[in-house]
Amino acid sequence: MKKVLVVDDSLSVARQLEKIINESGEFTCVGHAKNGAEAIKMNHLENPDIICMDMNMPGMDGLTALRSLVVLDKEVKVVMVTSLGGVGDKFTEALKLGAKNVISKPFESENVLQILREL
Q: What pTM, to 2 d.p., does this model score?
């Protein structure tokens, strides 16, 4: 099973995503970080196969963390998570910085799993 780290400052959003991941039988959630700084630490500790990271978080946001993660590990697989409203330029920037894809909230289980399977 592939290991997934969930990074989101909203506990309810993180729980939704963790439920989809853990119930899939293909992936397992190895942890939850509340911001980009925690994500960088937990990536080092847990060595996940995939990181699902919110773009907008207090402290260190997802794009800043993505920049750091790619510098630390060129092979890192990050999927950005965003609400439908705030995509636009940030979506393009995330992909340029090295994100593999973007998952939109609210989550559709099959869509989330399909994106994760492609990595």
A: 0.95
